[in-house]
Design a protein that fits this description.
about 650 residues, alpha/beta, Serine Threonine Protein Phosphatase 5, Tetratricopeptide repeat, Rossmann fold, five-stranded mixed beta sheet, four-stranded mixed beta sheet, 12 strands, about 60% helix, about 10% strand, elongated, disordered C terminus
Length: about 650
């Protein structure tokens, strides 16, 4: 007794399940005829299927193949195929095969049929078959459509009848499989959302988008007069480029970790939650979302179909064990460049209740959607003007290490990028950042720098109203101008537009700090540090100042000790050591501040530090006073 396997690799098996040698194209003919209602085809049809439309060479190749097949059948003592001068027909097909559903609509009880269909279709049809004929590719695609139709039919019936726990679980798995096979099918999407009871997910994301829209409208109304002229020109420019652009379909492959490490956390369910979350998000059809996300199935089929797409992303998730519960590490990778464009660590606590898992899934969905949208916007700019994009990247690299020379180099590169692409929002917002950071590094010596920062931030907002960058920089400029309420409003909007972005969280924390809410600031900056363990010095600086303001002087010094360049925090170091009663160490930092910046005016600096409430300025002034900033400058600068 022989059996034929067509899914997951084309094989002929004997009664013991061992593979039997047979010409691959012979087995392909066998599959083709077993799927044909007439169980036969002309020799010309078979030749074109296997070798294309070149009938001359195709017929020669077919005659050679027929000779090999006949020889092999004689040795096996079994005639699967019968050949005549004009036709090829099934004679004695294998007793069993995984093509059982091709002609049978009655597979027994609906859940048994669905289970068998799902198990069969999890593997790729005719995977690895060496046949390069275009006709074969079209035929195989048509067969895939028939397979999916059979699965959808069984799924629809089963979804309506599913009540028992095991039946519901089976329908969920089959719906996820069907979604991976055809992400565009709205019927599958509706079944998936219903069987996962995901109406709540749809409503959750709808509320988030409505909240964002309300924040955007409120902000626009407040600043309409200042931005309407620039916004009109930028929007016309952007809309002129984007007319008739197709809605991009971008595959996102979810790869859950195989590392279990004895943990009980249900990683597979988290992957399902994320998949369903993307389905809910896409089902909303939010106006302005030009990028949709195609969620692939995990496994061989997903990997095989992934390469068909020009633009693709991989979300990899790994679990690791900690004393306080599992830690989830997630990273989003651009498959084309192998570049990590988003990464995050999330503590999952000691247990994994369903609501906690759903919260994590929602957060990841929103974060990834925002990151992919932004990446696609950046990619469009790269394609339009590669040279300008490279200048932008160079400017961003200089901004990673704060110093006056680096700020000026960054500004030069970013201005060069804007000379050829004046409406590129990320470059505009990055220039705004150079001015606000220069104001900080020069101890607030030139208020005009903040005016420039605000000007470029408004231009960035006018160019792209729907991305966070401009609001983030506008918020920082307003912060240093002591307009803390406006600052927090802008940063709250930036965080809503790009949830989970550690940098925006860090700036929001700094705004809260200067608004005399150091407890909230410390909580938020600790979240940002947890999301980005290799934190920039600016994160640690904010944490140190918040700790100092709360009277936690040793904690402040601990944060400073983790900085790559502790000189950025010399003033708060001096104040912390002084408040701890160590005048010698405080004096060291006072001398280093004066050596680094001989023109430093402590009175003017204390007056411009943008603390909202006087009590916060008082504790800062007290630390600087005890450290000795108001004492006479010594003639020699001892280290």
């Amino acid at each position: 007794m022989f059996s034929l396997q067509a899914f997951g690799g084309l094989k002929l098996l004997d009664g013991d399940g061992c593979e039997v040698s047979f010409p691959e194209k012979g087995l392909l003919i066998l599959v083709c005829l077993m799927l044909e209602p007439t169980a036969g085809a002309s020799r010309g049809t078979i030749a074109r299927l296997l070798w294309g439309d070149d009938n001359g060479s195709a017929q020669v190749n077919l005659r050679k193949l027929v000779s090999r097949i006949r020889s092999r059948q004689n040795k096996l003592g079994w005639s699967f195929l019968r050949f005549s001068e004009t036709a090829v027909e099934l004679e004695a097909p294998p007793a069993s095969s995984d093509l059982w559903f091709a002609h049978s609509q009655d597979g027994g009880p609906v859940f048994a049929r669905l289970k068998l269909l799902a198990k069969t279709l999890e593997a790729e049809f005719l995977r690895g078959v060496d046949c390069q004929s275009a006709i074969f590719f079209h035929w195989r695609a048509a067969q895939g459509g028939r397979h999916l139709s059979a699965l959808k039919q069984a799924l629809g019936v089963a979804a309506a009848e599913a009540d028992a726990k095991d039946d519901v679980a089976l329908v969920k798995e089959a719906a996820l499989l069907a979604l991976g096979l055809d992400p565009e099918d709205r019927d599958i999407l509706r079944i998936l959302l219903r069987i996962f009871d995901a109406e709540g997910e749809v409503e959750h994301f709808r509320r988030i988008f409505e909240q964002r829209a309300a924040l955007l409208d409120s902000w626009s109304a407040q600043y309409e007069h200042a931005s309407q002229i620039r916004a009109g020109d930028a929007i016309r420019h952007r809309e002129g480029r984007q007319v008739a652009r197709p809605r991009a379909r971008i595959p996102l492959l979810l790869l859950p970790s195989a590392e279990r490490q004895g943990m009980d956390y249900d990683a597979a369910s988290l992957v399902n939650d994320i998949t369903v979350g993307f389905c809910a998000l896409d089902s909303l059809e939010i106006a302005g979302r030009c990028t949709a996300i195609r969620v692939g199935r995990v496994g061989e089929r997903a990997v095989a179909t992934f390469d068909q797409w020009d633009r693709s992303y991989i979300l990899e998730m790994r679990l690791s064990a900690r004393d306080d519960g599992p830690l989830l590490f997630s990273q989003l990778v651009d498959a084309a460049t192998d570049e990590i464009i988003w990464a995050e660590r999330t503590s999952l606590g000691r247990s994994s209740p369903e609501e906690q898992r759903r919260t994590v899934g929602r957060h990841i969905v929103l974060s990834l959607a925002g990151q992919i949208e932004r990446r696609e916007m950046m990619r469009a700019h790269l394609e339009e003007n590669p040279a300008a994009y490279q200048r932008y990247l160079a400017g961003k690299r200089y901004l990673e290490h704060l110093s006056m020379p680096n700020l000026h180099r960054a500004r030069g590169e970013l201005e060069a990028a804007l000379r050829t692409s004046s409406h590129f929002a990320p470059a505009l917002s990055s220039i705004a950042r150079t001015y606000s950071k220069e104001w900080v590094l020069t101890s607030g010596s030139d208020a005009a720098l903040l005016g420039e920062a605000e000007h470029y931030a408004m231009q960035a907002i006018a160019a792209r109203r729907d991305i966070a960058d401009g609001y983030r920089e506008f918020g920082m400029a307003k912060l240093f101008q002591r307009k803390s309420d406006e600052s927090i409003d802008a940063l709250k909007l930036a965080e809503a537009l790009n949830p989970g972005h550690a940098g925006i969280m860090a700036d929001h924390a700094e705004a809260l700090l200067h608004s005399s809410r150091p407890d909230l600031a410390l909580t938020k900056i600790e979240t940002a540090i947890a999301l980005n363990p290799v934190s920039p010095d600016t994160y640690l600086w904010t944490a140190s100042v918040a700790s100092y303001t709360l009277g936690r002087f040793e904690t402040a010094l601990d944060y400073i000790g983790r900085m790559a360049d502790t000189r950025l925090a010399d003033r708060i170091s001096a104040a912390s050591w002084a408040m701890l009663g160590d005048e010698e160490k405080a004096g060291f930092f006072v001398r280093r501040v004066r050596k680094t910046n001989p023109d430093f005016d402590v009175d003017r600096w204390v007056s411009v530090v943008p603390f909202k409430e006087e009590w916060q300025r008082d504790i800062y002034r007290e630390g600087l006073r005890r450290a000795g900033f108001w004492r006479a400058i010594p003639s020699s600068h001892r280290a």
